[in-house]
């Protein structure tokens, strides 16, 4: 029997320490691993073989370009609407002022009745008044003839719907004017009321702008008819035009146009 002892299997090896598996130890191990990775990947750009690029210091890290504020050159919608409103208002003011300053259509110019206005056929009363108009103008050396064209001066509603006839005092130097309208109504009271309404209409803003600024008017109630004549001294080339108004003033009762 030998005196030698059998060899131990763990001889020549250091005993292994027990592994710490606690949560704190695991977190510490992860921190060391991440720190090592950062240390390995960090440092200067040239040390990592990276070109720092123009305008950057070799020891600095790239930085984001400064943000630029976007500019919008287009006007805002609300500003456009305000500008359009101001422009439309200015145009309206110019049109109204032009009408007030410049006056309306010259006497003898064709106008039209209000929407829906209709006129009947003039009867015997208008024919009688036509004869009186012809005689009055004859005393002034003026001839009368039936108008060859349609003529409607600016009219109040009662005039616009009344039957009428139109005659013309013959003016050699002004053949387009000298037009006289004879309106026919049911009775003298209706004729007077219509004449007064016409005078008020002419004096109103909406009626006045339809005549020249220097317009003159002859408005006469003759029985159940009304005789109406208007003329403008500045727009009457024939010197006998004022004689028409003077001759008509001898007929019936006059109605004065205010203003």
Question: Can you give a write-up of this model?
Answer:
This protein is α+β, with helices and mostly antiparallel strands and 259 residues long. The chain has a domain at 124-254. The protein contains seven helices and six strands; from the N terminus they run H-H-H-E-H-E-E-H-H-E-E-H-E. The chain has helices at 23-41, 77-102, 124-138, 157-160, 188-203, 205-208, 241-248, and strands at residues 144-146, 164-169, 179-184, 216-222, 225-231, 253-254. It has a six-stranded antiparallel β-sheet, sandwiched between helices. Strand 4 (216-222) and strand 5 (225-231) form a beta hairpin. It is elongated. The termini are far apart.
How would the blueprint of this fold be written?
Layout: H1 23-41, H2 77-102, H3 124-138, E1 144-146, H4 157-160, E2 164-169, E3 179-184, H5 188-203, H6 205-208, E4 216-222, E5 225-231, H7 241-248, E6 253-254
How do you describe this structure in short?
With 259 residues, this protein is α+β, with helices and mostly antiparallel strands. The protein has a domain at 124-254. 36% of the residues lie in helices and 12% in strands.
What's the β-strand tally? 6
Residues in helix, %: 25-40%
Uncertain runs are 37-42, 61-71, 98-112
Q: Largest sheet, if any?
A: 6 strands, antiparallel
Q: Calculate the terminal CA-CA distance, rounded to whole Å.
A: 162 Å
Overall 3D shape: elongated
């Amino acid at each position: 029997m030998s005196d030698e002892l059998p060899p131990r299997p763990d001889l020549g090896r250091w005993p292994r320490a027990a592994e710490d598996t606690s949560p704190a130890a695991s977190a510490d191990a992860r921190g060391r691993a991440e720190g090592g990775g950062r240390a390995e990947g960090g440092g200067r750009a040239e040390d990592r073989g990276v070109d720092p690029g123009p305008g950057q210091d070799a020891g600095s890290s790239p930085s984001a370009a400064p943000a630029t504020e976007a500019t919008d050159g287009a006007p805002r919608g609300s500003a456009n609407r305000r500008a359009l409103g101001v422009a439309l208002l200015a145009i309206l003011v110019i049109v109204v002022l032009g009408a007030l300053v410049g006056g309306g259509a010259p006497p003898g110019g064709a106008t039209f009745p209000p929407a829906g206005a209709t006129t009947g056929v003039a009867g015997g009363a208008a024919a009688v008044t036509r004869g009186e108009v012809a005689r009055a103008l004859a005393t002034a050396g003026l001839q009368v003839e039936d108008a060859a064209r349609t003529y409607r001066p600016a009219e109040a509603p009662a005039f616009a719907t009344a039957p009428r006839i139109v005659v013309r005092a013959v003016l050699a130097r002004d053949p387009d004017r000298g037009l006289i309208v004879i309106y026919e109504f049911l009775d003298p009271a209706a004729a007077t009321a219509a004449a007064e309404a016409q005078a008020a209409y002419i004096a109103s803003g909406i009626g006045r702008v339809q005549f020249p600024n220097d317009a003159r008017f002859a408005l006469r109630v003759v029985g159940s008819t009304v005789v109406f004549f208007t003329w403008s001294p500045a727009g009457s080339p024939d010197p006998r035009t004022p004689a028409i108004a003077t001759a008509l003033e001898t007929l019936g009762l006059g109605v004065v146009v205010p203003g």
